[in-house]
Each structure stands twice: as C-alpha cells, then as structure tokens.
Amino acid sequence: MERHFDSALRELKEQLVTMAVTSSARSRTRHWAFKQDMNVLSRIMETEHKINASHMAIDESCVKLLALHQPLARDLRLIIAILKINTDLERMGDQSVNIADNSAAILRERPSRSSSICPRWPGSPPDGQGAIDAFVKGDVTQAREVLNRDDSVDAFKSKIFKDVLE
Q1: Whose CA is closest to 114, among 105, 125, 124?
Q2: Number of domains comprising the chain
Q3: What is the pLDDT of residue 78?
Q4: pLDDT of residue 9
Q5: Which long-range contacts (CB under 8 A, 24 or more apart) does 119-125 make?
Q6: Does 125 or 41 have the greater pLDDT score?
Q7: In this predicted model, which residue has the larger pLDDT, 9 or 44?
Q8: What backbone torsions phi and psi does residue 71 show, to the nearest 5 degrees?
Q9: 140 burial level (CB within 10 Å; 0-12, 13-18, 19+)
Q10: Residue 99, domain CATH
C-alpha cells in the first residue's frame, strides 16, 4: 500500500515534468527568432502565464509536503531539488519572453539584421529536456552529459550577445 506522502511526492514530480513540457516556450522563442513569426510571440506570452501558474502550484505543493510530513534525507533532498528546478524553469520562461521581446525590438529597428541576430546552432540546439529526463530517471550518466554541453551553450549565448551588440 502506497503512503499518502509517496503518492504526493510522485504527483509533485509529475507536476514538474508537466511544467518542463509546458516551458517549450524556449523552442518557440528559437522558432520565432529564426522565422520572425509574430503569432509565435503571443503564444510565448500565453505559455509564460501557464509556467508562472505551475511555478506557484509546485512551490505550494513542496511547502505542504515539508510542513505536513517532515521528510527525511532522500525525500528532503528530492523536494529541495524540485524547488530549485522549478525556479529555474520559471526563469527560463521569463528569459524566453525577454529574448522574443528584444528580438522584436531589434527587428523593428533594423529589419535587415534578421539573419544575423539569430545564428544557427551547430546541429540541434539543446532544449533542457535532457536535464529533466536525467532527473526523472535518476540517470547520473545523462546528467553528466548535460553538464558537459553547458560550456558550448554558454559560448553560443556569448556569440549571439556579441553579434547583437555589434
């Protein structure tokens, strides 16, 4: 028989995965920036509202679990990890909106720059899903692979920032 705490913890992980899927605004931002599709910008804003609502619900669930069940060791670490991931996912949604807004402003000011402000990522751009998969599966090897890609993602971001400033 499953304890109430265990089912609540499982549900909390499911909420986090749902939020990660919802935060596909990241890929919509890339699509919008590459294609300059104004309809995608409004969908990014709608998704951001869903992400914010999920963020609040997950935080509330975590606090309830902590307050009502006083979890120990492994469960406590899991809840803390979920709180941190939850905050990062919400922030990624905010960044998607910022990227779309800034790209729109640049393109309105200088439409001729549309091809240069969004260089192509070599291969398929990382989307963060690997990190969520590694977390859910508890796959340390996959988590290390995500960490190994971090430097190339940072370098690509710096290149885009530098190109936009120029």
Answers
A1: 105
A2: 1
A3: 93
A4: 92
A5: 119/159, 119/160, 119/163, 120/34, 121/156, 125/30
A6: 41
A7: 9
A8: -65, 155
A9: exposed
A10: 1.20.58.220
The pTM for the full model equals 0.77
Lowest-confidence segment of 5-9, 50-54, 120-124, 132-136 by average pLDDT: 120-124
When pLDDT is cut at 50, 70 and 90, the band that residue 132 belongs to is: confident
d(CA 41, CA 47): 10
- Separation of alpha carbons 35 and 102, rounded Å: 15
**Domain, as residue range, for 60:** 4-165
Half-sphere exposure of 15 (CA within 13 A, CB side): 24
Per the structure block, which two tokens stand in for 50? 């869903």
Query: Structure tokens of 68?
Result: 């009502």
Using left for φ > 0, alpha for ψ between -120 and 50, and beta otherwise, residue 70 falls in: left
Copy the structure tokens of residue 153: 């993602």
